[in-house]
């Protein structure tokens, strides 16, 4: 009886190690160029005017801290509601600077960007951080922080 219990305990203890080893062998890394393409896809979603096209680029559990709203957007419906309002004035984003860091199944792009709104001609300078996570099929935004760029 004790031998069987020991065998089960050892099996349970080694399962996480085996899972971690399998995860490491399935590690997906990215390049800075690929991260810039992901921004282009996000910006194309803005240009489409379709909030659903933008919202589908975020993981289910993504955190969006948007530029023009004080409310964190934590669900798909929250992000969709934000983009419905944000897209009304026809925004287009342009990266002014970017720094990219990549790792196993995760990558981060951060820097400065400018939005130009077609409906008003207004330009808004902001800071951004996009964190992407590989979901086994594609890169999705897991965290997105955007804030107005301070003057000075």
TrEMBL record:
Signal peptide span per the entry?
A: 1-20
Keywords from the UniProt entry = Signal
- Which CDD domains did the record assign? NTF2_like (cd00531)
What Pfam families does its record include?
CaMKII_AD (PF08332)
Which intervals hold domain Calcium/calmodulin-dependent protein kinase II association-domain?
32-150
Domain of life, per lineage: Bacteria
Identify the NCBIfam families for this entry.
SgcJ/EcaC family oxidoreductase
Name the UniProt record assigns to this protein: SgcJ/EcaC family oxidoreductase
* Species: Pseudomonas farsensis
